[in-house]
Amino acid sequence: xxxxxxxxxxxxxxxxxxxxxxxxxxxxxxxxxxxxxxxxxxxxxxxxxxxxxxxxxxxxxxxxxxxxxxxxxxxxxxxxxxxxxxxxxxxxxxxxxxxxxxxxxxxxxxxxxxxxxxxxxxxxxxxxxxxxxxxxxxxxxxxxxxxx
Length: 148
Ligand SMILES: [Zn+2]
Ligand SMILES: [Zn+2]
Ligand SMILES: [Zn+2]
Known about the structure:
It is a single chain. With 148 residues, the chain is an alpha+beta fold. It is built from six helices and five strands. The strands form two sheets. A three-stranded mixed β-sheet has the order 4-3-5, with no helix packed on it. It has a two-stranded antiparallel sheet with strand order 1-2. The radius of gyration is 18 Å and the shape is flat. The structure holds zinc ion (ZN) (3 copies).
């Protein structure tokens, strides 16, 4: 995913390419692994352009979601987070969510192909996609726990 792709998609769908949209898009790419909430995203982009308000961030994320540029993620921690959709990512990767520090770690391997195959056979159900989240303690929090 790059700026060229953003411009192409915006124009193709009848939207204007604006500086603010570009800044928000670039910031999402720069923080690819952070899974930012709109508020966190706003904090970063407002340092680059103080005219970008939180409402603009919300509107832009909604637009990006519509254009399938971002995924909206819900880790049950009372806020949505967003991440950029990677080119050629056949299916959305999985996440490990630390319940202590709220850190989100990405699992790059799928590991579910066999389970899908099994389910398709057993239930005669054609699977398009799946979503999977693991909750627990990250390695830092495990260490901290031990030393307490
Ligand atoms: Zn943690
Ligand atoms: Zn992710
Ligand atoms: Zn998977």
